[in-house]
Design a protein that fits this description.
Layout lengths: L2 H17 L3 E9 L9 E5 L5 E2 L4 H16 L6 E6 L5 E9 L4 E5 L5 H10 L3 E6 L14 E4 L5 H4 L6 E5 L4 H12 L5 E4 L3 H13 L6 H5 L1 E2 L11 H17 L19
Parallel strand pairs: 6-7, 6-9, 7-8, 9-10, 10-11
Antiparallel strand pairs: 1-2, 1-5, 2-3, 4-5
Helix pairs in contact: 3-8, 5-6
Organism: Planifilum fulgidum
Pfam family, one: XdhC_CoxI
Protein name: Xanthine and CO dehydrogenase maturation factor, XdhC/CoxF family
Length: 271
């Protein structure tokens, strides 16, 4: 790779790191072929064209495909992978994955949303609070969170839910919760948690069905209600921990049970 291309590759990678954009930097670590340059790099952004060259077109294609798969996953890990080339040669490629922070979007600015937002920020989530009440949704109550003052009639214009956004519905207002549930399940959000018992969830779904709104199996599979892990939570802070523990378990592909009951040798489960 020319010096100019090398500089372009690193500049692109550093921009993604600074701006929190999804990208993969692939590096050729080992190769059974003497014709492949060990140390060569290929930068693959989520948006835009790859930069760099690993020395073999088929290897470039395989690495780009693997990188795209990683960026499409919910919580991909950086790792070294063994890849095979058409001629039988094998190579080791390290995939360095950079993702933007996950977002937790809370519909509802009640008192029990305050510890959820606080703990979520401490866990590294970008936190957004959506509520139509300016007396509740304030920077003083939710420091460090993005505040969106909006009712259900303006969500389409003011609220954007992405595929790395975890949604929590806790308005304590049946009509707003129902509207938020409809809005969230029709978005790419992978996780939609709804505060309240099963009976309340069922009432909301039945009311939406009477309005002509029906969710398919895939949409309902993203709905977590009652929300949270069963830890006997009572106080708002305990409930917040229960909810965020479930979100972390979901994001990482874990079940959230007791570690002592796990049979695997490592407590860290690779994806």
């Amino acid at each position: 790779m020319s010096g100019e291309k090398e500089r372009e590759l690193y500049a692109s990678w550093l921009r993604c790191l600074r701006k929190g954009r999804a990208a993969v930097l692939a590096r050729l670590l080992e190769s059974s072929s003497p014709d492949l340059p060990v140390g060569a790099r290929l930068f693959i952004p989520e948006e835009g064209e790859p930069v760099g060259d690993l020395g073999e077109p088929s290897l470039n294609r395989s690495v780009i495909e693997r990188a795209r798969e990683k960026m499409d996953a919910l919580y991909p890990r950086s790792e070294t992978s063994l890849l095979s080339l058409p001629g039988g040669e094998q190579v080791q490629v390290f995939f360095d994955v950079n993702l933007p922070p996950f977002e937790l979007m809370i519909f509802g600015a009640g008192h029990d949303a305050v510890p959820v937002a606080r703990f979520a920020r401490e866990l590294g989530f970008r936190t957004t609070v959506v509520d139509p009440r300016p007396a509740y949704a304030t920077g003083e109550r939710f420091p460090g969170s993005r505040i969106i003052l909006a009712d259900r009639h303006s969500w389409e214009k003011k609220v954007t839910i992405g595929r790395r956004t975890f949604v929590l519905v806790m308005n304590h207002h049946l009509e707003r919760d129902r509207a938020a549930l409809r809005f969230a399940l029709n978005s790419p959000a992978p996780y939609v948690g709804v505060l309240g018992p099963r009976s309340r969830r069922q009432r909301m779904l039945e009311a939406l069905e009477q309005e002509g709104v029906r969710f398919d199996k895939e949409q309902l599979s993203r709905m977590y209600s009652p929300v949270g892990l069963d830890i006997g939570a009572e106080t708002p802070e305990e409930v917040a921990i229960s909810i965020l523990a479930e979100i972390l378990a979901f994001r990482s592909g874990h079940q959230g049970g007791f570690l002592r009951e796990q049979s695997r040798s490592s407590i860290h489960q690779p994806l």
